[in-house]
Amino acid sequence: MNANVPDITQNNGQTEFDRFQDHYPTRRASDPAVLARSEPVAYGSAHVGPLDQLALNQYAESGFIHFDHFFNSNELNMFLKELNSIRTNQSIKSQAGSIFEPNSQEIRSIFAVHNKSEIMHSLCYHPRLVLIAQQLLGSEVYLHQTRINYKAGFRGQEFYWHSDFETWHAEDGMPRMRAVSCSISLTENTHHNGPLMLIPGSHLSFVSCVGETPENNFKSSLRKQDVGVPDDESLQKLIEHRGIISTTGPAGSVTFFECNMMHGSNSNITPQPRSNVFVVYNSVRNRLVAPFCGLPARPDFVAHR
Ligand code: 6CS
Ligand code: FE
């Protein structure tokens, strides 16, 4: 078969051909645009997983689900100890997946954390997390991206507003919105130490961004994102319409949020670090294709293929 002609095999209502089409163009036009989402949000049903219909409906509408006490204190202590030992490990710090703050040598993120230790592997593949992800995505799932987001006390820097899907679509070739991110708080997230902020319902609109992707963009974007950033007017409209919520909660809380959710977080000028593990589950029906920005695929540590 000609390798350039995609296989037209039915795949849950979508053809293989659909997967290669750019349903969410971004970073191409000279003006920003807001496109309506054209696929489901909650793919699974209530009788096939831990979430009831009410929770699924809430997720479909708002784009997130939050649990205050997902892990008990024994699990939590084990994961936090592990996070700190990985974060301070000199050999891990010198690897490509370790990302530093824009203006200092403080760790900002460590990617592919599920490969760094058995304990982190067990966290990312935790059966209760996986069951929820499978139910939300209505299929088997795999790990698209995992990382530690360590927001140091005093000088931990912000993450500006963005949709992860916008980047994963453009730079990794994620065809459709059928992935879910899970933010696991291993320290308390308060209103003060730079918690994850979400615009509920923003997952229903795709903000197409302006600005071409430079080669090897990830080398700078993981420290500070400049491309794939929504324009002020689209953001303002979204926030006026839908508001902002901060996902605060005790250590051990977990927030699942839809891959196209507009989100960000402020810097942390408190003495208390904010240590989160971030796990992205993608549907096996949404496997990556060639990046839609036309550049080579990013390394495996940032987007598992
Ligand atoms: O480029 C990425 O894949 C990462 N960067 C941002 C700003 N958010 C999503 C993702 O973890
Ligand atoms: Fe993000």
TL;DR?
This protein has 305 residues and is an alpha+beta fold.
Describe the structure.
It contains nine helices and 15 strands. The chain is α+β, with helices and mostly antiparallel strands. A hairpin with a 2-residue loop joins strand 1 and strand 2. The relative contact order is 0.24. The N terminus is likely disordered. The longest helix has 15 residues. It starts with 9 loop residues before the first strand and ends in a 22-residue tail after the last strand. The chain has one domain: Sandwich (Jelly Rolls), CATH 2.60.120.620. Bound molecules: ligand 6CS and fe (iii) ion. The site of fe (iii) ion has 3 residues, from loops. Ligand 6CS binds next to helix 7.
- Elements, N to C (H/E): EEHEHEHHEEHHEEHEEEHHEEEE
Largest sheet: 7 strands, antiparallel
Overall average pLDDT: 94
Could you give me the name of the CATH homologous superfamily? Answer: q2cbj1_9rhob like domain
Percentage of residues assigned to helices: 10-25%
Residue share in β-strands: 15-25%
Shape: globular
User: Order of strands across the biggest sheet?
Assistant: 4-13-9-15-7-6-5
User: How many structural domains are formed by the residues?
Assistant: 1
Query: According to CATH, what is the topology?
Result: Jelly Rolls
Radius of gyration (Å): 18 Å
The CATH architecture category equals Sandwich
| Count of DSSP strands | 15
Q: Determine and state the CATH class.
A: Mainly Beta
Which blocks of ≥5 consecutive residues have pLDDT under 50?
1-10
